[in-house]
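Fill in residues.
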């Protein structure tokens, strides 16, 4: 590159990487022998690599170009010969060794400084522990390497450190040796028998509490299970161990996957950018997804731990044994593994409620992503910084795409396809195309059109109309699909959309479906494959009420002109539990939007008479599934309501939703109180099982309504006080309501909570998040004050997520104030974060990138803050990509 080209590139900003430019690697690294010597001031990394030219490459270049960042090069040896500085070139991003042979050994010695690594990528210090995070491109911060996922190598890792400070030295694979050294040091040697990409490398050194167990696989092989947690927290790892063993059992039963090493290790770390990382045999976790006991963890914490432990374990096959060729294929491992962990929690917990939670998450995070300036396909075409594509689209929508594939093929053929996928591609780095081809091979179905789900951005809209001929007893459904333009994709093609449906008669009974010459059934999947299609049912004795998109069978927005009476009927009687909940949500959104218009016009608000009646009905009649009932009592969030509006009116949404909540509390007060007492365990004893979880969820949902009425503040306080040291689920439920009250009890509860738990970092995170989500008008002032509090540390991702993340992402009424103060606050915080940890900064800035959804005044205020960020000539690639792409749509 010439000097003028370099200057031009610098002026243009960071440049994108394109999927179309992928080339097979010129060189392959078959084996790497690492020696990592940990010292307090520096770390010495010695790598010995066996490298060969890739016969599949047509590139004739003889130069070896290795990635490297923030490394101090000490020495290089090629086939044992020390190279002088004239025989290689080093830059900030790479090491080039020209004219290398086709087969050779390369030895590199580098120095790194983990204690200065605030980005938490590569090897870094988390308090008194060394640990690594190498996905996506962190390994290049440890040693010079071909840092690409299609470079699969066998790793042998030797670690040495001070034995008194770091008695545990861990890495991937199986332990093959250990011993003592001079000056109080010791060493451990690990060998991973399976080839893996460098993003799956892991190293941990520290002093921990260790929980041990074992698991007997389906082939009768014993696996040691080790969970390492910070000293003093050993009693909080038992639920994680339970979750791990449940995941191992489930994966053997559901997918035939058996664990393949002698030991499976989990390490919980306080400073971690992600939730967890599936490094082969040595998973590194954020403490929030490992630590749990009744006094400090809520029901949702227990459920999240079960899900995330399962997710990382399932990666052992869907991501590790079979990995992705390049980062554009990220959903091949993440979407697939999300689908697997969702299936696991549905089978293990409540199928209906887990599905509701997953769909809520999709609608509140991924649908807005699809509709905004950062919209991208499940398999993106380009990126500037790969860390920005760990998104809801790649993960959650990617999981929905696979769920659709299972629906289209059927569970039996889908399982057959998964078995063949793991068998055919074990030990390989593959593409989404490889995966879909497998499913074609086992099913004989042409999935050409289905592949569009991976390359086309945006959320499809399906409009449904119907017609009933009483004389011929024929019922017709007409389905029409469309998709709005997204950046770089103005024109959309028709997708293959599976619409699961049923028909109900006027008594709420399932009607048999006579469809062409197919066998009669009560439920059918309609394959919508063209822009408009008509589906006809015969022998329909009376006009039915259709139950459409059951169990949310496709990630679409579906519209059918239900009457309010129809929705209330489905809310009470639909045989599909998800669609019962969905009917209630649709009715609630319709009512909310109508009242929002009345509020905007200055009219007095009145809740429809039938509103109370339908909720009274379900409180009286839904006695079997308390958890589902709690979800059915929940109103759509302010974020989701905003997504249904052309221009988000923050104040109107908040005012109307609060009005409905208070009206429900007033009108249903006796039933809420009765239900609360019927499900309240006065002993406060905590047990994690679905019966007890369901009771707590329903009880605390009722409490949240009751505490909107001043006379129930003392009842909330009593639950808070009696549960404070025994049951965090009940404590947090009460505190969340108390924090939204302008009452002396508010500060009393916050102070008591903090003084009780100030030494427990994860509980303090709850304390920060609850205040950041407060509906009271002084929330921003409180957040600013808390940023100066002893409990907050901007270098710790969990603290940032809890305080700044909650305020920006989960408190729309206070973040989007008309003066723009929330926007300015976030910009300053993001600027500060970008200097320390660009990944976290990029995640925090996203609320500003949705500026197009708001009124012109707010648009200007949000864009002004984005432009100020872009003016910083030291802005990270992570932040630059999101901000610049967002402003391109201005």
């Amino acid at each position: 590159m010439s000097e003028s080209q370099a200057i031009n590139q610098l002026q243009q900003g960071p440049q994108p990487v394109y999927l179309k430019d992928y080339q097979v690697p010129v060189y392959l690294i078959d084996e790497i022998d690492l020696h990592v010597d940990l010292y307090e001031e520096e770390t010495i990394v010695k790598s010995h690599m066996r490298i060969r030219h890739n016969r599949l490459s047509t590139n004739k270049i003889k130069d070896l170009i290795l990635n490297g960042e923030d490394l101090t090069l000490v020495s290089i040896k090629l086939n044992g010969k020390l190279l002088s500085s004239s025989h290689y070139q080093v830059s900030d991003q790479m090491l080039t060794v020209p004219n290398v042979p086709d087969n050779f050994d390369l030895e590199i010695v580098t120095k790194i400084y983990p204690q200065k690594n605030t980005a938490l990528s590569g090897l870094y210090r988390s308090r008194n522990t060394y640990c690594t995070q190498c996905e996506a491109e962190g390994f290049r911060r440890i040693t010079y390497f071909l840092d690409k996922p299609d470079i699969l190598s066998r790793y042998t890792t030797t670690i040495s450190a001070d034995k008194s400070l770091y008695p545990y030295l861990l890495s991937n694979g199986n332990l093959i040796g250990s011993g003592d050294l001079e000056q109080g040091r010791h060493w451990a040697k690990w060998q991973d028998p399976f080839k893996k990409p460098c993003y799956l490398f892991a190293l941990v050194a520290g002093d921990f509490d260790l929980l041990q167990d074992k698991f007997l696989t389906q082939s009768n092989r014993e696996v040691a299970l080790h969970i390492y947690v910070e000293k003093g927290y050993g009693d909080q790892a038992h639920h994680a161990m339970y979750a791990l063993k449940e995941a191992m059992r489930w994966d053997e039963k559901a997918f035939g996957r058996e664990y393949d090493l002698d030991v499976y290790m989990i390490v919980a770390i306080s400073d971690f950018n992600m939730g967890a990382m599936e490094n082969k045999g040595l998973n590194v976790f954020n403490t929030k997804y490992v630590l749990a006991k009744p006094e400090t963890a809520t029901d949702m914490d227990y459920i999240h731990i079960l899900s995330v432990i399962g997710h990382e374990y399932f990666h052992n096959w869907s991501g590790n044994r079979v990995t992705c060729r390049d980062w554009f294929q990220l959903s091949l491992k993440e979407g697939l593994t999300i689908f697997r962990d969702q299936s696991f929690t549905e089978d293990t917990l409540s199928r209906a409620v887990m599905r509701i939670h997953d769909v809520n998450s999709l609608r509140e995070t991924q649908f807005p992503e699809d509709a905004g300036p950062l919209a991208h396909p499940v398999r993106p075409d380009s990126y500037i910084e790969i860390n920005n594509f760990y998104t809801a689209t790649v993960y959650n929508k990617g999981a929905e795409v696979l769920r659709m594939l299972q629906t289209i093929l059927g569970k039996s053929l889908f399982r057959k396809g998964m078995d063949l996928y793991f068998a055919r591609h074990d030990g390989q780095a593959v593409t989404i195309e490889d995966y879909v081809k497998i499913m074609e091979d086992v099913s004989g179905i042409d999935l050409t059109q289905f592949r569009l789900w991976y390359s086309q951005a945006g959320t499809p809209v399906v409009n449904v109309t119907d017609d009933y001929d009483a004389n011929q007893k024929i019922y017709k459904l007409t389905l029409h699909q469309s998709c709005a333009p997204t950046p770089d994709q103005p024109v959309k093609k028709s997708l293959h959309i599976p619409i699961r449906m049923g028909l109900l008669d006027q008594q709420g009974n399932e009607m048999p479906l006579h469809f062409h010459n197919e066998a009669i059934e009560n439920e059918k999947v309609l394959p919508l494959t063209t822009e408009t299609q008509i589906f006809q049912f015969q022998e329909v004795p009376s006009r039915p009420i259709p139950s459409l998109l059951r169990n949310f069978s496709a990630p679409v927005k579906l519209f059918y002109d239900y009457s309010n009476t129809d929705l209330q009927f489905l809310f009470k009687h639909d045989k599909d539990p998800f669609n019962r909940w969905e009917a209630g949500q649709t009715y609630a959104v319709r009512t909310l939007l109508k009242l929002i218009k009345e509020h905007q016009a200055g009219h007095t608000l009145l809740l429809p008479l039938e509103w109370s009646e339908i909720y009274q009905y379900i409180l009286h009649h839904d006695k079997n599934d308390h958890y589902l009932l709690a979800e059915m009592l929940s109103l759509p969030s302010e974020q989701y309501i905003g997504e249904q509006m052309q221009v988000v009116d923050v104040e109107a949404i908040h005012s109307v939703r609060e009005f409905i909540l208070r009206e429900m509390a007033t009108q249903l007060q006796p039933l809420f109180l009765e239900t609360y007492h019927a499900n309240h365990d006065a002993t406060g004893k905590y047990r994690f099982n679905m019966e007890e979880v369901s009771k707590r969820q329903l009880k605390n949902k009722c409490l949240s309504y009751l505490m909107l009425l001043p006379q129930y503040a003392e009842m909330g306080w009593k639950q808070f006080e009696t549960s404070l040291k025994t049951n965090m689920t009940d404590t947090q439920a009460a505190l969340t309501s108390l924090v939204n009250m302008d009452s002396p009890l508010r500060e009393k509860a916050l102070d008591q909570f903090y003084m009780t738990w100030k030494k427990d970092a994860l509980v303090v995170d709850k304390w920060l998040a609850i205040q950041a989500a407060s509906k009271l008008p002084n929330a921003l002032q409180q957040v600013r004050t808390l940023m100066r509090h002893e409990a907050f540390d901007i270098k710790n991702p969990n603290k940032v997520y809890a305080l700044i993340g909650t305020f920006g992402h989960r408190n729309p009424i206070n973040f989007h104030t008309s003066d723009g103060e929330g926007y300015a606050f976030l910009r300053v915080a993001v600027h500060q974060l970008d200097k320390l940890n660009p990944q976290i900064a990029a995640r925090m800035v996203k609320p500003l990138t949705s500026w197009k959804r708001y009124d012109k005044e707010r648009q200007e205020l949000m864009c002004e803050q984005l432009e100020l960020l872009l003016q910083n000539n030291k802005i990270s690639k992570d932040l630059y990509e999101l901000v610049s792409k967002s402003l391109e749509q201005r």
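The CA atoms of residues 212 and 226 lie 5 Å apart.
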